[in-house]
Amino acid sequence: MSDEPMPASVPAMPRLNRRMRMQWEETQNCYVLLYPEGMVRLNGSAGEILKCCDGVTSVEAIIATLEQKFNMPSLKTDVESLLAHAYEQDWIQ
């Protein structure tokens, strides 16, 4: 587990890009991100993390919430990695 900070580009309180809409897609049996150019199918972990990105909740609080919800310590690296990827893909701002 790394204690290195997230890349500076990832917002302290991430939120979904306003052009995107996240929803549960029954036919896909997963969360998806819908945007004008298409759709991104999310795995379970990505869906849980992105559900927490409301622009009000800090990254630290997101990590703590998910660690408690799933009774799994040490999710920091995984959550930060997904958030960095989501930022690079312009899913979050």
Q: How do you describe this structure in short?
A:
The protein is α+β, with helices and mostly antiparallel strands and 93 residues long. It has helices at residues 44-51, 59-69, 76-88; strands at 21-25, 30-35, 38-41. The protein has a 3-stranded antiparallel beta sheet with strand order 1-2-3, covered by helices on one side.
Q: Sketch the topology as an H/E string, one letter per element.
A: EEEHHH
Question: Uncertain runs with pLDDT below 50, 5 residues or more?
Answer: none
Instruction: Report mean pLDDT, rounded to a whole number.
Output: 92
Strand order of the largest sheet: 1-2-3
Gross morphology is globular
Rg over CA atoms: 13 Å
Assembly state (oligomeric): single chain
Question: Sheet bearing the most strands, described?
Answer: 3 strands, antiparallel
Which percent bin holds the helix content?
25-40%
CATH homologous superfamily name?
A: Coenzyme PQQ synthesis protein D (PqqD)
Head-to-tail CA distance between termini: 25 Å
Strand content: 15-25%
Helical/strand content category: alpha+beta
Count of individual domains: 1
Overall description:
This protein has a single domain (21-88), classed as Arc Repressor Mutant, subunit A (Orthogonal Bundle), CATH 1.10.10.1150. Strands 1-2-3 form a three-stranded antiparallel β-sheet, with helices on one face. The protein has helices at residues 44-51, 59-69, 76-88; strands at residues 21-25, 30-35, 38-41. Helices cover 34% and strands 16% of the residues. The protein has 93 residues and is an alpha+beta fold. β2 (30-35) and β3 (38-41) form a beta hairpin. The protein is built from three helices and three strands.
